Amino acid sequence: MDQTSPNQISPLDHNLALSQSRKYSFSVREITEGELEEVCRIAAQAFLDDAITNFFAGLEEFPNSLSTPGGLRIHHIYSFVVKSCFYIGGRVVVVTASDATTLAKNKSGEKIAGVACWAPPGKRMNVFNIPLTIRCGGLKVLKEVGMSGFKRIILEFMSLTEKTHSKTFRNSLYPGSEVRRKQEKLTPNDAWYLALVMTVKEFEGNGCLSLLMREAYGHAHSLGSTAPFMLESSTPRSRDRYGHLGFEAAPED
Ligand SMILES: CC(C)(COP(=O)(O)OP(=O)(O)OC[C@H]1O[C@@H](n2cnc3c(N)ncnc32)[C@H](O)[C@@H]1OP(=O)(O)O)[C@@H](O)C(=O)NCCC(=O)NCCS
User: Residue 58 — left, alpha, or beta (φ > 0 → left; ψ -120 to 50 → alpha)?
Assistant: First the structure.
């Protein structure tokens, strides 16, 4: 678990969210409900070869496409994550790429290059909220992964991460509360939580992750939020980049 405070990092000016790379122009925006299905598909695709995702899905081999049975299972899992974030009132943000020579473009002339799903402070998915769970495709996930998958995801993975979050936040005070002379205890639910982030393979290494993270810091700053940011890293590749973007690793036991 890592956390950072947006105040430690200079926020990205929203008007400057347009960034240039050698080949593409990137910009960052929140999605509309009509884009959810496309975003779910793009997000799932990025995790086909992710070891933790395969553990969630109970797969022994990485599926090579979303249209295989294993790929479909991963698609359902990530649809649930993206939709949960959207329907609890979170932020599903995309970085889009445009280029005159981009071959595959969607109708609006831009291509989704990366996705971030943020659960704001105080807003979290509760799987026991049955209507919401059904709306987000929770029953499809349960049907795909079965009770053993439910145990792996909720009882093994999530309970472990929750323990780490709680331990990390123990004795933490809300940033700025010392200044106000009222020491408010900080809990993991007070943080901006990154439920999912990914960059489409062809755009990796172009700063898409940085754009998504800095947009989030800028958004929090624009709201006057001093809440920390929290996420889990599943690979050394992402862990090193989060470190570069201001996150600190949770202390080991
Ligand atoms: C991990 C992932 C999101 C990285 O995305 P990306 O768009 O290629 O990352 P970026 O190019 O934006 O790099 C982010 C920053 O890290 C820096 N960076 C690059 N290599 C680095 C390294 N080895 N160590 C530290 N920082 C590094 C970059 O320079 C950039 O910073 P800058 O904007 O200040 O220059 C992407 O590889 C991915 O989607 N992987 C599959 C899904 C996944 O693992 N998601 C994360 C789950 S926890």
Answer: left
Q: Which domains does the chain have, with CATH numbers?
A: 2-249 (3.40.630.30)
Residue 173 β-bridge partners: 185
What is residue 175's predicted lDDT score, i.e. its pLDDT?
78
Contact of 225 with 190, CB cutoff 8 Å: no
- Taking CA atoms only, the protein residue closest to ligand 1 atom 12 is 207
Q: Is the CB of 208 under 6 A from ligand 1?
A: yes
- Weakest mean pLDDT among 65-69, 147-151, 239-243: 147-151
Tens digits of per-residue pLDDT, 163-211? 999 999 887 877 777 666 677 888 999 999 999 999 999 999 999 999 9
**What radius of gyration do the chain's Cα atoms show?**
18
Nearest to 137 by CA among 30, 60, 43: 43
Whole-number Å distance between alpha carbons of 133 and 80? 8
User: What span, in angstroms and rounded, lies between the C-alpha atoms of 82 and 92?
Assistant: 7
Atom of ligand 1 nearest to the CA of 238: 1
Please name the amino acid found at residue 126: N
d(CA 238, CA 236): 6
Backbone CA torsion sign across 150, 153, 157, 163: negative
Atom of ligand 1 nearest to the CA of 212: 12
Paired tokens of 189: 């639910």
Instruction: Enter the pTM of the model.
Output: 0.89
Q: Measure the CA–CA gap between 56 and 77, rounded to whole angstroms.
A: 8
Pocket mutation for ligand 1, best pick of 209, 235, 239 (most atoms within 8 Å of C-beta): 209
Residue 189 backbone phi and psi in degrees, to 5: -70, -15
